[in-house]
Design a protein that fits this description.
Strand order of the largest sheet: 1-2-3-5-4
CATH class: Alpha Beta
Order of helices and strands: EEEEHHHEHEEHEEH
Number of helices: 6
Shape: globular
Helix content: 25-40%
Oligomer: single chain
CATH topology: Ribosomal Protein S5, domain 2
């Protein structure tokens, strides 16, 4: 039995509330169980200097955890004076994932920055950030369409992510902290709504895992991501 009582292939409850902030062009608060992430998307009318005159747009991301997102207070990284390696890795993952669903030619020479702030953490924060970040990104890009600056929304594919792993010898979907901290195998899977793999991160914690177990985890993730894409569609209206 999983600590939460969920079935092996069952996601935590998923709630996506759009319009979570007043000023951002796109925003949502995503709740996956007890993991809550505020995602905001901001549009700039220019790209980074190294992309100027390329005709391409850019999507990037920043990620952070509030000091009391976990059981004990963590110091803000700004107070330490540097970004941790974990934060950098997650930011890059979110950015890569969201760009996979973006037609950068259609976006034109603009940059959209997606900020993912973890309000409360109970495992799977990077996956929730990608899933919610896509919603914020899509809403922001729609603002450009509504304003007549673009003919079509350049966010052309849904992108969502979910964790999976082997807990007490059994493959399970969407690990919470109690499972993640004890899992024998832990993986994060990012996919498009069409079923294309964007990224697979997986590692063994102690014992190795087999190709058959990996296939089982990918099948679990694919089914879970289909549910998350349905939640995204409900949130943005398509």
């Amino acid at each position: 039995m999983r600590p939460s009582g969920r079935a092996p292939d069952q996601l935590r409850s998923v709630v996506i509330e759009t319009g979570a902030t007043k000023h951002a062009e796109g925003s949502c608060l995503i709740r996956m169980g007890e993991t809550h992430v505020l995602c905001t998307a901001s549009i700039e009318g220019r790209t980074p200097p190294w992309m100027r005159n390329s005709g391409l747009g850019w999507v990037t991301a920043e990620y952070g955890m509030l000091p009391r997102a976990t059981h004990t207070r963590n110091r803000r990284e700004a107070s330490v004076g540097k970004i941790s390696g974990r934060t950098q890795e997650i930011q890059r993952l979110i950015g890569r994932s969201l760009r996979a669903g973006t037609d950068r030619v259609m976006l034109g020479e603009r940059q959209i920055t997606v900020d993912c702030d973890v309000l409360q953490a109970d495992g799977g924060t990077r996956c929730a950030s990608i899933t919610g970040g896509w919603v914020a990104l899509r809403l922001a890009a729609q603002k450009l369409v509504d304003a007549g600056e673009l003919k079509e929304n350049p966010i052309t594919q849904h992108v969502a992510a979910v964790s999976c792993g082997v807990y007490e010898g059994k493959p399970v979907l969407d690990l919470d902290y109690a499972e993640d901290s004890e899992a024998g195998t832990d993986a994060n899977v990012v996919m498009t709504g069409a079923g294309g793999l964007v990224e697979v991160q997986g590692s063994a914690e102690g014992a190795t895992f087999s190709r058959a177990e990996l296939d089982t985890l990918l099948n679990l993730a694919e089914a879970g991501i289909a549910e998350l894409v349905a939640a995204q569609k409900a949130a943005v209206g398509g």
